[in-house]
């Protein structure tokens, strides 16, 4: 079993537990419980930063457009955006589908949780600043341009499920060789690997902290693969990252949720 940190709903502090990531089993107080037997809260507390175009296929999908206005060239530094606090969601809770939107892009991302203040760290030392890894669904409303921050499309309530836990850094031998899969209603719709990152995890941390500080508790998303699958109201979404965990949520129309929203 893997050592991980988890936050249960209604409990103010995080717990250290043992998990079987592939099977979705948590060992707590000597008992082994399945994901559907526990109520999880998001296991992260800091700012969540997303990264655009960090998968080779995602950049290649732009084709010749990357050399035209407004881009004019391939990015020379990480393209970052923030998933604000209102977007943070947790395992098993619904993903709201806004009124007038028919489908959502499911953004499977490895979340790198920072363990201590990181400013201008070297690539060689970068992983020493990592507390652990988690599964993130960087949900967005489908849109074309990556030039301007897509706040309306990416920063909606509930658009960032995280969890169900954070696996300790030492439990992941190589964060740059993790298979990511997206299932919708049990059907495999996407498979990729962090081996396809333009900036591997350590380089991404080094490049980001060259111009900004990451604090303990912050989460840096390594990016979303190309051809993000779409999910509509009623769809069950499951994201798996080998050796890290599996995150499950259902897409529900916003007006069907309690209070008319997330």
From TrEMBL:
Keywords: Isomerase, Metal-binding. The keyword Isomerase applies. InterPro entries: Fumarylacetoacetase-like_C, Fumarylacetoacetase_C_sf, HPA_isomer/decarb_N. It comes from the Bacteria. Signal peptide: none annotated. Residues 47-252 form the Fumarylacetoacetase-like C-terminal domain. GO terms for molecular function: 5-carboxymethyl-2-hydroxymuconate delta-isomerase activity; 5-oxopent-3-ene-1,2,5-tricarboxylate decarboxylase activity; metal ion binding. Pfam families: FAA_hydrolase. This is 4-hydroxyphenylacetate isomerase. It comes from Bacillus aerolatus.
């Amino acid at each position: 079993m893997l050592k991980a940190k988890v936050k249960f709903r209604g409990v103010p502090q995080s717990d250290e537990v043992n998990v079987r990531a592939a099977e979705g089993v948590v060992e707590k107080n000597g008992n082994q419980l399945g994901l559907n037997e526990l109520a999880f809260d998001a296991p992260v507390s800091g700012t969540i930063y997303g990264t655009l175009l960090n998968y080779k296929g995602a950049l290649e999908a732009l084709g010749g457009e990357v050399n035209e206005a407004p881009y004019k060239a391939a990015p020379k530094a990480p393209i970052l955006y923030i998933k604000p606090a209102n977007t943070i969601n947790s395992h098993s809770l619904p993903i709201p589908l806004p009124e007038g939107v028919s489908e959502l892009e499911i953004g499977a991302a490895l979340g790198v949780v920072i363990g201590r203040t990181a400013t201008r760290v070297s690539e060689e030392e970068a992983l020493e600043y990592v507390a652990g890894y988690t599964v993130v669904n960087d949900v967005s409303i489908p849109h074309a341009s990556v030039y301007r921050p897509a706040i309306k499309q990416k920063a909606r309530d509930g658009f960032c499920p995280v969890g169900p836990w954070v696996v300790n850094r030492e439990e992941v031998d190589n964060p740059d060789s993790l298979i990511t899969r997206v299932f919708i209603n049990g059907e495999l719709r996407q498979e990729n690997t962090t081996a396809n990152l333009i900036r591997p995890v350590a380089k991404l941390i080094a490049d980001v902290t060259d111009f900004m500080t990451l604090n303990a508790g912050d989460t840096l998303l390594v990016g979303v693969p190309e051809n993000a699958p779409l999910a509509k109201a009623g769809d069950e979404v499951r994201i798996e990252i080998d050796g890290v965990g599996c995150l499950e949520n259902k897409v529900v129309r916003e007006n069907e949720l309690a209070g008319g929203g997330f």
